[in-house]
Amino acid sequence: MAKRSVHPRPDGLEPVVAAMAEPLACAVHCLERCLGAWSGPPTEARTLVIGCGPLGLMLIDLFHSMRTHVRAVDPHRHRLEAARLFGAAETRPGRAGDGNGPAAEDSFDFAIDATGTPAGWDHAVKSLAPGGVAALFGGCRPGTDLVIDAERVHYQEQTLLGVYHHRPSSFRAALDRLIGAPDRYGALVERELPLHRLTEALDLMIGRRALKVAIRPHSNE
Predict the structure, then answer these.
(1) In DSSP terms, which residues pair with 92 in a beta bridge?
(2) Phi/psi zone of residue 10: left (φ > 0), alpha (ψ -120 to 50 degrees), beta?
(3) Out of 70, 81, 113, 150, which could bridge 124 as a Cys pair, Cβ 3.0 to 4.6 Å?
């Protein structure tokens, strides 16, 4: 277990940035699953990422690195600004499920939910082009139901993927990516607080007022 799952922190990689390896590894695993399920070249694909929290931004960065055209959807302006910095070609303000559903011209080869809500899953599935892949990345609560158009999924040969966690190879790839772009991923950490202000840190993230907050246990702040 330790040989496969414990990784030394690379020289020169700050601990705060290295802490991003676990969520980034999950995003890498999502990318790998999507590419494995799709038959076309990624450079010709259109990607929709629903939700621009830290994981959504990582997914945008990864799919952008494959030269797909990425659209990001989120209700918060500062997150959409971050999405542009991470490679989104388009940003749209709004929540998953707003309106009457995606228009026919807004269909995507990859549609990824990073909200973990039933509305996000539904939006991702309904946004698929024929042959497209929906990555249901954000985890919903136990007992959550998803209603799909079975005829559409069947005859348009769409793929719905449940994506969870990562593999050791995904973690190693995440560390390599962090080494190559420490400043970009480090920018996800918008505040640093001492351990005794942990509740404040959680409130900042839950309230969408900070993407990530680093906890410095020995800080005297």
Answers:
(1) 73
(2) beta
(3) 113
Residue range(s) defining the domain that contains residue 220? 191-221
Q: Which residue in 50, 20, 12 sits closest to 135, CA to CA?
A: 50
Query: Are 112 and 204 within one domain?
Result: no
Q: 105: number of CA atoms within 13 Å, CB side? A: 0
Q: Model confidence over 110-157: pLDDT tens digits?
A: 999 999 999 999 999 999 999 999 999 999 999 999 999 999 999 999
Do 84 and 31 share a structural domain?
Answer: yes
Rounded CA gap, 87 and 69, in Å?
9
Q: Give how many domains the chain has, as a whole number.
A: 2
- Residues 154 and 206 both lie in one domain: no
Distance in angstroms (rounded) separating the CA atoms of residues 199 and 30: 30
Residues 58 and 154 in one domain: yes
> pTM to 2 decimals?
0.94
Q: Mark which of 121, 142, 162 sits at the end of a domain.
A: 162
Which tokens is 109 given?
């080869």
